[in-house]
Amino acid sequence: MSGQRIRNLLFSLGLMVFVIGGAAPVAAAGPDTTTLTLELKEPAKPDIPYYLMARLVDAEGTGISGESVSFYRKVEILGARLAYLGDAETDSTGVAKIAFNPSKERSEILVRFGGSDEFAAGETAGTVTVPPEAVSSFGSDDADTLEPLRVVMPRLMAVLVALIWIGLIWIVLSTTRTIRREAEGA
Amino acid sequence: MRISGPRIEPGASTSSLNEKGSSGITRRRFLGGALLGAGALGVLGEGLAGRVAAAEDLELAETGKIGDQQWAMVIDLRRCDGCGECTTACQKMHHLPETQEWIKVHELEDATGGTYFMPIPCQMCENAPCVRVCPVGASFYQEDGAVVIDQNVCIGCRMCMAACPYGVRTFNWEDPPNIPERFRSSTPEFTVPQKKGTVGKCDNCVHALREGRFPACVEFCSMEAIYVGDLVDDTATNGHDTVVLSDFLRDNDAFRFKEEMGTAPRVYYIAGHGQDLDY
Amino acid sequence: MSVWSLDARWRGDSPSSLDDASVAPAVSSRRAFLLCVAALAIPVAGGVVAYIYQLTQGLSVTGLNDEVFWGVYTVDLVTFIGFSYGGALVSAILRLTNASWRGPISRIAEATAVVTLIIGALFPIIHIGRPERLWEMFVRPQINSPQLWDMVAIGTYLLATLVLFSLPLIPDLARLREGNGIGGWRARLYRWGSFGWRGTEVQRRTLNRALTIVAIAIVPLAIMVHTVLSYAFSLTSRPGWHSTIFGPYFVIAAVYSGIAIVILASVAYRRVYRLEKWIDERSIRFLAYLMVAMGVAYAYFTFTEVTTAGYVGGREEAPVLYGLMLDRYAPLFWGFVVMGLVVPVLLVAFRKTRTIAGITIAAGLVVGAMWLKRFLIIVPTLAPSLLGDSYGSYTPSWVELMVTVGAAAAIPLLLVLLFRVVPVLSADEIEELNDQVRS
């Protein structure tokens, strides 16, 4: 059983064990050996996204063009999982790139080349780091703009009610006291 | 005054999550959440391996740790075939009578006269009307975003049922039938058994999520139409596919139910009518 | 009332003096009093038994369900508290405007306000699923809740109506200190409750000032209470409820039905105790005019309410309005319009029917129809599902109906008990007003 078959079996089981540190796919006998490297291209100016760039080269170090490379992000949601980021095709220099929207400062990325008749499959994992200001978390930003009113209004009302209670009780007490005073004076 | 029926009040029934601020509502913290490592979650294998046996065998969960997740849900209506497995699984998990459907599958008509199925669980609003109207703060936000009910406090006035724009709340007119012995106390995270005279609703299976398990509806949807998502990590999974939440929603024109209400739900829908999909 | 006609003491003759008239119910035959109490206590006891049954069984004994989860109890809550509003407002406004015809009916109005409010205040407790947890509202109040503010409003209003009821009692109780045929614990109460009133200049000034302040305060207070009561509905996003008109709509409804209750109580006491000389027809007639004015206003509000909702006819409003006016609830709705708005107004409008009997019938119709109207506010909104794919239904159960009948019977019961102790006419006020008229 070749290493590739074992690997494929593992994939098909869906068991993702992220022990592969930097790079280095296992060489296989049949098709040509390939090497995948990953890098993060930072935006030259604001409003341009980050790009994840994977370079696929053959044994001689020449870029392989026209092959599809898949990008994943390692996530922890009810267990370790791979979130699919997208596919991209390598260009003439062997580079495939996709826009990347970092949701945290450090993201673990997995790049996978499924292999073809000519070239062996391979994958590489790496950690990309972005500055904190580049992190964009998904979530609704419809904060409750009326929150201050919800805090203030009922409390104002409570003060008003307290004043009404005090006022009513005071009226009763002062009135009966005055009436009683007159009675005693008699 | 005392009404009949079991009224078990264990000391720890109301968890410390229920500590309230002066507003009476636990403030939800987004992103700034407790800095517990995500690794605290139990690791499940990919795919089917993580499926636990059957929902009714789930033991009462010791409330797991609150991670730094903010839970969300995506329901892909393109896949929903209206089979109602989510409803049944939820009822088994929470030991509900058949009349109570915490995730109800509605068959609705679209503009062209066709129909589509729409499962409606609690929408887990970030600006929840039900939380606001509760006179005793029995409905409140969990740290990880779920809106839950403390049935040990609820006085059963049903104001929240009137306030909810989604009609997802039900009242416990009777004691729930056939509750196994081991379920003694109802906690906000796992309201089993339902308490008579109080309001119940989808609890987002917070108990399961905190243990790294799937909500019953997600796990038992054979169409894999329901995703559980994490807004912080921007991911969602239905147990089979894992996607980048924001991309998934944007690429598929997701919407939130009754967006115009301003309730900011955490449940997203992808419009559809059970069409064949291969993606 | 037939019980009373057995009472030989008053048959045919009217009390000879104002003081006699004011204590007529208190000194009438004990046997008749007890018979009357017993007759009224039976339905009240029935209501209590039904409620105890509900306590043991839970809310499943009601006709409520997950679609229509508020029903007759909520209707009763709004209706009874509405009754109390009319009493207090009539008394307060007439006092402020110094209307000379208010004298004979002010005590009955104030007492009705207190009594109906006490009964109405029970319904928030009756309608909740866990009444034994009511204390949670005090321990952990959630200050944004309309339900909580309902309770606060009812409590505040109860205090205000009690003050408005008890302060004018002081001079009247003082008149009874001398006896007037009543001894025992009641005499002791009169001595204590009159606070040594002698009618001196200072005492009079103090009391009048206090009453003016309370009367001024109670008008906005009553408006607030009834607006807050409507919040339980209008602060939700439900079609048919989520409407700014609900505040004033509830206020007008309350005054309308409240005046009707005051008319019924006044006519009953007038008839049974032969107080025609003291509670003159003019006072009843003016009350009827006021009632009709409110009725017309309410009719207009109803028109406005359905027009704003129906003219646009949104996807959510339309089914509610359709059910209310054209479909399932249409007979009830149009029945309300005819019996609750048209007939009472016409009865008072025509001189031929503008008799005590005609006015009493009109008031009776208003009381019943306004209960029905509250039902029509609450149930048709809840019945259609929010998704528009199902339609819930609701039939009140015998428990709910018995509790309602019991509560309704509790109004006359409490009034009979109350006027066995306190004078039914505010003799002091009547004399003061007569002096004003003469001078």
Structure commentary:
The complex is a heterotrimer of chains A (186), B (279) and C (439). Chain A folds into 2 domains: 3-134, Immunoglobulins (Immunoglobulin-like); 143-186. Chain A has 2 helices and 7 strands. Chain A has helices at residues 3-13, 147-185; strands at residues 34-41, 50-58, 68-76, 80-89, 95-100, 106-113, 122-129. In chain A, strand 3 and strand 4 (80-89) form a beta hairpin. Chain A is rod-shaped. Residues 9-28 of chain A have low confidence and may be disordered. Chain B is an alpha+beta fold and 279 residues long. Chain B has helices spanning 85-94, 129-133, 159-163, 206-210, 216-219, 245-251, and strands at residues 71-76, 104-109, 115-120, 139-141, 147-149, 170-171, 199-200, 226-230, 235-237, 242-244, 267-270. In chain B, the strands form 4 sheets. A 5-stranded mixed sheet of chain B has the order 10-9-8-1-11. Chain B has a two-stranded antiparallel ribbon with strand order 2-3. Chain B starts with 70 loop residues before the first strand and ends in a 9-residue tail after the last strand. Mean pLDDT of chain B is 77; it is low at 1-64. Chain C is mainly α. The two termini of chain C are 39 Å apart. Chains in contact: A-B, A-C, B-C. The interface between B and C is large, with 47 and 46 residues.
Q: What form of chain B results from the Cα inertia axes?
A: globular
In the CATH hierarchy, the third-tier topology of the largest domain in chain A is known as Immunoglobulin-like
Q: Which oligomeric form is depicted?
A: heterotrimer
Hey, roughly how much beta strand do the residues of chain B contain? 15-25%
> How far is it from the N-terminal to the C-terminal residue of chain B, by CA?
59 Å
Number of domains of chain B: 1
For this structure, the CATH topology of chain B is: Alpha-Beta Plaits
Overall CATH architecture of the largest domain in chain A? Sandwich
Q: What structural class do you assign from the helix and strand content of chain A?
A: alpha+beta
Q: Main traits of this protein?
A:
A: 186 residues; alpha+beta; Immunoglobulin-like; 4-stranded antiparallel β-sheet; 3-stranded antiparallel β-sheet; 2 helices; C: 439 residues; mainly alpha; Formate dehydrogenase/DMSO reductase fold; globular; disordered N terminus
